[in-house]
């Protein structure tokens, strides 16, 4: 059994931990949270288009904010072996109220000797403040606003026409517009454009899913992703590979939903999962393999129990995005958990007057997608990768193409952190 199977076994346990109440109606409106979840969609080989800046995806080659503006080489190399890193995640994540491009890149070293070592997983935040693209984005926002106002005006005119042509002396609501229970004021219009719960696919905070049907919009962050993004431009395909690769997949994003209330059951893990060994130690206890011990210890951790319960609602998630929220910790016993729980996340070195806040994290299911790569011979050791970014979204310097990159804080909870001494 290689190390990556620990996460796979834990993933299987997570999906079996919770049952569902059979007396709940299927049509019940699901509860939601402020978190956006990323799910694997089509793989790059099957897709008709190359990924662009406005897409979010895992694996493959990064798409830089400008073809001639790439981050410095020392930002995308492993701090242990000095080899180039492989892209784990690229997330298109413009901020609410801004009109510039913003991308989060997560990288990892594929060298087996670098596993569990600091500097083998790194995160870069990239920003592009090209005046032309910002102007295009603002014009697009204005055009969308005008379309909304025009649609609302047409609706108001149609409503006024309807009531004016149906006025009669016997009208129980009276002839005066003031007595109209539906009113002419735009604020009272229950069907006004501002009350619409539907938006286009470009409302997806990480880029659109190819040919995905329209989805409900639940957050201003989701809508600003489209409004802050300039028209989509497909970059030229490289004729060579610059970085090692994991298998590439587009992501689609939806708000976290809790469709049914889980009924937590007693966890019973059979020998096929925990791989108990028959031998008995001199002290009378059972000997477990290291992998089994890691799982056994994790099941006694209340933080992991909470992780399992939340993930069990949406077990296929590979990404959680909740800017300014709280990360979902995998374990309570490692240094990452201590830094987060005690608010010890380091300030950005390039902006010491600022601080960092949680933005996103990568979830264990991504391992199952990446392990299709035959070059991965000894498994992947992440449990979750947690990213914190500068509160002020500051970039010290932009190049001639108005692009800048900085390294952000990343906390990796490894499978080894589950083993208690």
Short summary of the structure?
The protein is α+β, with helices and mostly antiparallel strands and 421 residues long. Helices cover 23% and strands 22% of the residues.
Would you write up a description of this structure?
The protein is α+β, with helices and mostly antiparallel strands and 421 residues long. It has one domain (4-130, 230-418). The protein contains eight helices and 14 strands. Strands 2-7-3-4-5-6-14-13-12-11 form a ten-stranded antiparallel beta barrel. α1 runs parallel beside α5 and α1 packs across α6 (302-313). The radius of gyration is 25 Å and the shape is globular. The two termini are 22 Å apart. This is Programmed cell death protein 2 C-terminal domain-containing protein. Residues 206-217 have a biased composition (Basic and acidic residues).
Largest sheet: 10 strands, antiparallel, barrel
Distance between the termini: 22 Å
Instruction: List the secondary-structure elements in sequence, H or E.
Output: HEEEEEEHHEEHEEHHEHEHEE
Q: Mean pLDDT, as a whole number?
A: 76
Strand order of the largest sheet: 2-7-3-4-5-6-14-13-12-11
Portion of residues within helices: 10-25%
Percent of residues in β-strands:
15-25%
Radius of gyration: 25 Å
How many helices in DSSP terms? 8
Label the structural class: alpha+beta
The residue ranges in which pLDDT falls below 50 over 5 or more consecutive positions are 14-27, 171-203, 208-240, 263-267, 272-285, 417-421
| Shape descriptor | globular
Tally of distinct domains = 1
Tally of DSSP β-strands: 14
């Amino acid at each position: 059994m290689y190390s990556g199977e620990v996460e796979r076994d834990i993933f299987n346990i997570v999906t079996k931990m919770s049952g569902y109440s059979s007396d709940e109606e299927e049509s019940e409106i699901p509860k939601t949270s402020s978190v956006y979840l990323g799910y694997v969609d089509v793989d790059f080989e099957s897709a008709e288009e190359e990924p662009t800046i406005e897409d979010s995806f895992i694996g493959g080659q990064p798409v830089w904010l400008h073809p001639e503006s790439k981050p410095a080489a020392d930002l995308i190399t492993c701090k242990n072996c000095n080899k180039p890193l492989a892209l784990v995640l690229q997330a298109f994540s413009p901020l609410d109220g801004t009109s510039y491009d913003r991308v989060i890149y997560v990288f990892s070293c594929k060298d087996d000797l670098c596993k569990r070592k600091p500097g083998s997983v790194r995160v870069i935040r990239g920003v592009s403040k090209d005046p032309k693209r910002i102007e295009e984005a603002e014009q697009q926002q204005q055009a969308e606003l005008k379309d909304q106002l025009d649609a609302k005006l047409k609706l108001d005119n149609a409503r006024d026409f309807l009531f004016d042509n149906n006025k009669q002396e016997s009208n129980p609501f009276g002839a005066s517009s003031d007595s109209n229970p539906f009113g002419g004021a735009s604020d009272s219009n229950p069907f006004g454009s501002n009350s619409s719960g539907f938006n286009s696919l470009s409302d997806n905070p990480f880029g659109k899913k190819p040919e995905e049907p329209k989805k409900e919009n639940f957050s201003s962050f989701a809508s600003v992703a489209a409004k802050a993004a300039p028209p989509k431009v497909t970059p030229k395909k490289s004729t060579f590979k610059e970085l090692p690769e994991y298998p590439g997949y587009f992501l689609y994003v939806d708000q976290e939903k809790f469709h049914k209330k889980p009924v937590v059951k007693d966890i019973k893990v059979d020998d096929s999962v925990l791989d108990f060994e028959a031998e008995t130690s001199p002290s009378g206890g059972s000997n477990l393999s290291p992998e089994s011990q890691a799982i056994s210890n994790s099941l006694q951790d209340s933080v992991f129990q909470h992780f399992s319960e939340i993930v069990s609602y949406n077990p296929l998630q590979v990404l959680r995005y909740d800017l300014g929220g709280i990360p979902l910790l995998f374990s309570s016993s490692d240094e990452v958990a201590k830094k987060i729980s005690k608010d010890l996340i380091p300030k950005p070195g390039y902006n010491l007057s600022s601080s960092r806040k949680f933005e996103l994290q990568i979830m264990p299911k991504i391992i199952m997608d990446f392990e299709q790569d035959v070059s991965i011979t000894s498994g992947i050791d992440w449990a979750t990768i947690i990213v914190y970014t500068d509160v002020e979204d500051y970039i010290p310097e932009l190049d001639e193409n108005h692009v800048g990159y900085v390294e952000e804080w990343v906390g990796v909870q490894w499978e080894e952190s589950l083993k208690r001494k």
